[in-house]
Amino acid sequence: MKSPHHITPVHAGCVFWFAFWRASACAIIFVALAACGATPTIVEQRVVDGLTISLERPAQPIALRDYAFVATITDAGDQPVEATLVYFDFTMPQMEMGVHQPIADRLGPGKYGVRTLYSMEGDWRITVVATIDGRDVRAWFDHPVLPP
Ligand SMILES: [Cu+2]
Hints:
Layout (H helix, E strand, L loop, with lengths): L22 E2 L2 E6 L8 E8 L2 E8 L8 E8 L10 E8 L2 E6 L4 E4 L2 E6 L5 E11 L2 E11 L3
Antiparallel strand pairs: 1-2, 2-3, 3-4, 4-5, 5-9, 6-7, 6-10, 8-9, 10-11
Copper (II) ion binds next to strand 7.
């Protein structure tokens, strides 16, 4: 199976949905290429302590552009799980970067989002940190970011 990072976005007509799945190390990936003009996004899932944390992010992000990032937390019964605090920790595993940990807004049941940018190109890791019942649950998502 090809890496989702090597998939070329396809625009056929005005609305084109492309979905595939990959199961490896508890990860299921869905790619959705939405209506014309919208930034194609990718949703990746991680299972942590019986909870599923998914992150929707730009499919092929470019540095220094503003994007929406949305985390969704569900339990084993697929019900939304509320967190008292959710933040997104943006790091680069291969280098020391300034701390960038925007606190997410609650968008709905079990749904938390931020708008922010990647400060440079390269290999990034977004760690979603959710405080649930007094403990921190973490899920991380690695992906490359292209130069502006
Ligand atoms: Cu860097």
